[in-house]
Amino acid sequence: MPPPFSPQLSRAAPAPPVYPPLLPPPGVIPPATSRNNPFRHALHQAHLRDPYSRLVARGLDGEEGEGELFPYLSAFPVGPTPLGPKQCAFAWEFTLSPTDCQRFPQFLGTPVGQRSSRVVRDGNQIYRLRCIRVSPPTTAISPSAWSVADAVWPSLAYVFVNGAELSFRRKLHHGKDLPLEITRHLRPGTNTVTLHLIRNAAESKDQFYAAAVEVLDITSFTRAIQLATLLPAGQCRERIRQRLHPATRDDDDVSIVSEELTVSLVDPFTARIFDRPVRGQRCAHHECFDHDTWIRTRAAKSDRQALKDDWKCPICGRDARPQNLVIDGFLCEVRNILAATNRLEGARAIQVKSDGSWTLKEEADRPAPQHGGAGPEVARGPPKRKSISVDDRPASLTQRPKIEQARSHTQTQTMGYVRCSPTEVISLD
Ligand SMILES: [Zn+2]
């Protein structure tokens, strides 16, 4: 039923919408919010946007197509340099060969009114200038420490690359300070980067910085996997023994001595046991994560966003770049034994003794036998030998979820030098 006619309502004109002004009044300092919106707050820096990157990868059939690539910090034309408390002017030089410059991404130009674009391929290299904050007594910074530090620009700085002045993108407008890509300003021969600082009171007292020119290598999944190195099982056992029985102990400290070390077998990304266990060389923990999964989660795709190179260990936050990963030979052995004895399902952790023997902790509360070549439990028991092949596995293992079958297929194609495959024939002493 239609409402009754109201002459007063029909004469009232609708109020025009009120829009906030596009630009703030002069002199207004925008508040530093925790959720910056670069599309609004960095509108005046649209010309500093990263180029659109079209990532081209070569498939297994050799054909090129749009795909995933993996950027990681690989080298320093100018190594990490503490800037100290007083010096205001810095100039660094480094030389690039024509071959180095041929590894730049292929820039496609900048149409009028559009952002620039480029094609990035396996083997390309991208050069960046970055500053980080360091503690005042810092005199040297390791590549690993540098790789996990966030970019932080000094409050007021001017940078020139081969005479061209470049601008920073800061946290105020972009949510966080962003590295400054300088690839397009480099050339064969000698390249010069200058940095001039004007420090505020805090930066003259205890807020110090370091700067470096770094290279991002762009690599395929296969090459990224091959960069890891194997840590033999014997060295892994020795590492556990030292953890349980440290050689030196400060008597002034209260020490907790344990006979067993619990090591989780669960990959933090997939919540199941890893296929090939890796961790960073500098990681102090013994837990590992799955190699393929870790690399896959770092993939860069064709996007309008900057290429990300976050390789912080998912367990401790230290350097876990592809070239700094170690494959734990001991946990590879553990996984192979679990696979051969049909105990992969539900395997969550093991308890390792200082002699290298270990006991499985399963989800289900059921007893598990012990393994370990040098362990006293094994030595006391009767000698036994068992050979298990893939055909001996029960249907429950051969019918594993699709995700694992697909991952195993990839592993077989990409890995030739380390195998943790459950299809191996293993003899148990
Ligand atoms: Zn770690």
UniProtKB/TrEMBL annotation:
It comes from the Eukaryota. GO terms for cellular component: chromatin. GO terms for molecular function: SUMO ligase activity; zinc ion binding. Residues 265-317 form the SP-RING-type domain. This is SP-RING-type domain-containing protein. It holds the Pfam family zf-MIZ. Residues 358-415 are annotated as: Disordered. It comes from Aspergillus campestris (strain IBT 28561). Keywords: Metal-binding, Zinc, Zinc-finger. GO terms for biological process: protein sumoylation.
